[in-house]
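chain below, 265 aa
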Amino acid sequence: MYRFLKKIEWGIIRVINILLLFYSLPDYVRVRKNINRNVFFKNKETGKKCYILLGGLSVKTVDLKVLENEDVITVNHFFRTKENALVSPKYHLITDSNFYKQQSNLNDLLRLSLKSTTLFLNGRYFKNNNNLKNVNLIYPLYRVADNNIELRIDKITSNFSTVTLNAIQLAIYLGYKEVNLVGFDLPPGHMPHFYKESKVEIKGTTTQKEKVSEYDYCSLFWQYTNCHHEAYKLKKVSDINNVKIYNMSATSFVRAFPYRSFSND
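prediction:
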């Protein structure tokens, strides 16, 4: 029954994607030239290995010094942490619409980011039309429905339920052949981060606790199951592209990607 209902849901999402495309075209035209320039990054890191460093609590068990000389992709508010200088990320990605609602977040990002880090921001919400150095835009729009995943970021592309999967999408587009996920724990309910003492994390926790109505609360778990479905579908796409993806969190709830420890790295 669940499989049947999910297929119906995916059918509805495909229709919604068509409607979203027509609705978003005027806005896409605004940033199209910037998006198209991403072709420069196609296979830029061909055959290499990278680590996607996320916010899960399992990161606390990792000595991040092991990533000092590795290609690292970080996401969201990681640029605020002291670990940012240690790992010196090569790429940083932010897709969450909530991040762009406060100009102070963008100001902090541009102020705190390392000059060596290439930024990828969500062109649907980033409204600065100036050509900022190291800032590139992607346009994630299409919700995943079964296997309809778009990897290209030089045009309108897939929009996942978690930035982690967008980061994997970015890594595959860049040409990495091995992608290691660090801190991809994805526990049900509220998702705590290893930098939970920060003001950003406290505010996020408060916001989720305020979701007390039936539909607000249950929608969190709908998004959660979507994350898992999308992870399985992205695993299939990565296999087709001969990209190996490993989850380096022993306590992760994500089963789509095989576990790999740092001792076996």
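The domain at 2-260 is CATH 3.90.1480 (sialyltransferase cstii, chain A). The chain has one domain: 2-260.
thats it, cya
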